[in-house]
Amino acid sequence: xxxxxxEAIDLLKAVxxxxxxxxxxxxxxxxxxxxxxxxxxWSEQLSWFHHExxxxxxxxxxxxxxxxxxxxxxxxxxxxxxxxLDSVIEDQFSTKxxxxxxxAMDVWAGVDWLLSEAQSGYVExxxxxxxxxxxxxxxxxxxxxxxxYDKQVFQAILTSIENLVFDFASNSYSxxxxxxxxxxxxxxxxxxxxxxxxxxxFAERLDTIRNGLNSQNAQDWRAAMWSCRDxxxxxxxYLWRDQRETYEHLPGQGKDGKxxxxxxxxxxxxxxxxxxxxxxxxxxxYLRAEMERIYHSIGTLYELDCKxxxxxxxxxxxxxxxxxxxxxxxxxxxxxxxxxxxxLSPSTSEAAEH
Length: 354
Known about the structure:
Helices cover 61% and strands 13% of the residues. With 354 residues, it is an alpha+beta fold.
């Protein structure tokens, strides 16, 4: 392992430790990850970190989470404190209320500006002014229209950036720290997965993943990423055929706090399937958490691809594919691959298989 790679691993571990402890200095985290990209010549990722740190130039496409930030307009009085008080008092007795006008803007500024506005919100003059007559004082005051953006919209941007940084740090650390081992594990999982899944009709999807990983074409990378998602979805449909909406033996967001296992909840279905096959305790919890991580990674890439109209990278697809094959490998090696037609209590299920 090279010295830059060793240093990159240490930096990424420090970033992840900050996330896990709940103490994230976002500006510092962006700088550390930018330094990692600089050392490893990851130019595409480095560009994103620089833009988040220092702002986006006009010729660069904005990410989806910086576009169309919602705000509203408001009229404020111009003048001293007495003028403002008169206007406020008049507003209390006024029966005529101006309708709220909603507006939107794109955010190009760097992280310093975002952190500042996330504390108090942002107010910007529109340049429009208008006189306002105060009846009880028989005088006119000057008012100015401003654009108001609440602090929550900037907090949401910062949350999106934090999520993307965490995904980058987590995936990059895994690849750099365990890269040599992953190559052997990858080949073993591929052979095992393809042997089992090809016989039940998944050969085409697996070919799409394999071809995408070997391609230099961005369209093939995108197809491979979607095939990872579709493989997990279709396998869940194949293995879980119970028609009930919830799985009673695991907690979740469904009815009565149980796990939802409808057709759209394919990650939950695979988790319930593993649970039915006796994979419980720490191993079951680990596999369910890993499936959630993969699901989140694919969802993040989907948002980047669709909302920002930016290409996914081969790096992105490799990390998703490795995670997908890891889960598939655990399923085909630890279970009999027989569908669950009607689930039972885990103890009854285990007894029925022996």
